[in-house]
Amino acid sequence: MNDYRPNSFDADIGELRGLIAQMGGLAERAIAGAVEALQRHDLVAAERIVAEDKKIDVLEKQVEHLAVRIIAQRAPVDGDLREVVAALKIAGVVERIGDYAKNIAKRVPAIDGHREIEPLSVLPAMARLAAEMVHDVLDAFAARDAEAAIGVCERDRAVDDYYNSLFRVLVTHMMENPRTIGQVAHLLFVAKHLERVGDHATNVAEMVYYAATGTHMAERDRGALVTN
Amino acid sequence: MNDYRPNSFDADIGELRGLIAQMGGLAERAIAGAVEALQRHDLVAAERIVAEDKKIDVLEKQVEHLAVRIIAQRAPVDGDLREVVAALKIAGVVERIGDYAKNIAKRVPAIDGHREIEPLSVLPAMARLAAEMVHDVLDAFAARDAEAAIGVCERDRAVDDYYNSLFRVLVTHMMENPRTIGQVAHLLFVAKHLERVGDHATNVAEMVYYAATGTHMAERDRGALVTN
């Protein structure tokens, strides 16, 4: 009997992690795909990305139901409870990351002057960086790796730098090419969305850190003990 | 003995609702205040709004700790469990609404040509509408009022219409006044943030509906029974 509950809990948490890994894989591909579609003005790919976002939403609901069932049936405590709560919150954040990708894909039809807008060429590198943060932070969650989570946070500055430089480049481009303003305004949002994906990956990293250690990452520098 | 647990649960859930009402009040005031500060170019008010966002963050952590303690100690089921989970998720959304207000406040210093940018005059009405949605959806949560939650969702279209019309007005303004492009680009984000506040209030409304009825709002039109 003693072995029953822990094993079942492990199976449940394994299922929970599997669902979140699936969500993360979809979100990561959606970000990269949306920015590629933007650059190639690929309306078919853009539509597919918008449609596939529904899969992420369905997975989020599955995570929520499973997490609530685990809490209700298994009454986990301490680290186990933190992990289930983290899974619930992380699923919500990954769903929002998927929404950003969908939002970028929805802007593809509006950018038909893609060959004239040079700043577009910077976006794929920024998208790759943001998508990698999402990938790595979910690996950190799967491995309960607090150090890896810190590493993800540290990369957010690079995404912010991309954004700040792009903002200036896009504003300059608008001033010099007033007839592209409508299209470039959409690109301001695309750049902002990618910056927000980086922020969300950072938030997830903080959740992973808390789930793994029981202390908040912000307390780390104030000399709090890391207890795992 | 039989009376002990329900009474304690009621006290806990009352505390949870009180914390969320506090968060909502702060977020609502921050949105209205940030847009006012923008219009008056009031740097002192803007700084105060940025600083006060920390209070919302602290309250969110309190909600999280309390919700996890309730689940762990009281093992609520069915409607009670749905309500605790909803509180946890709603706190996360209200925290993000606070972040949008903070982000708007941070843009105040960049808009020093506020007297020349006529579209600015539309923002307070849009901010009021979005802040009211936040107010009303948290009232609906406090009252477990599924019908009121539906009413909030229905108002999101008005916020979207404001946004779509503002986007066009701002792009036209940029074309006609190229030297204001840098400032007006910030206003595009402000308008987008307010539109997102409306979206988030709608998401909260869906959570309130689910917590109160046990069915998802999207299932309502497909003839699902509302069970309260």
TrEMBL record, chains A, B:
<protein>
    <recommendedName>
        <fullName>Phosphate-specific transport system accessory protein PhoU</fullName>
    </recommendedName>
</protein>
<keyword id="KW-0592">Phosphate transport</keyword>
<dbReference type="InterPro" id="IPR026022">
    <property type="entry name" value="PhoU_dom"/>
</dbReference>
<keyword id="KW-0813">Transport</keyword>
<dbReference type="Pfam" id="PF01895">
    <property type="entry name" value="PhoU"/>
</dbReference>
<comment type="subunit">
    <text>Homodimer.</text>
</comment>
<comment type="function">
    <text>Plays a role in the regulation of phosphate uptake.</text>
</comment>
<feature type="domain" description="PhoU">
    <location>
        <begin position="125"/>
        <end position="208"/>
    </location>
</feature>
<keyword id="KW-0963">Cytoplasm</keyword>
<dbReference type="InterPro" id="IPR038078">
    <property type="entry name" value="PhoU-like_sf"/>
</dbReference>
<comment type="similarity">
    <text>Belongs to the PhoU family.</text>
</comment>
<feature type="domain" description="PhoU">
    <location>
        <begin position="20"/>
        <end position="108"/>
    </location>
</feature>
<dbReference type="InterPro" id="IPR028366">
    <property type="entry name" value="PhoU"/>
</dbReference>
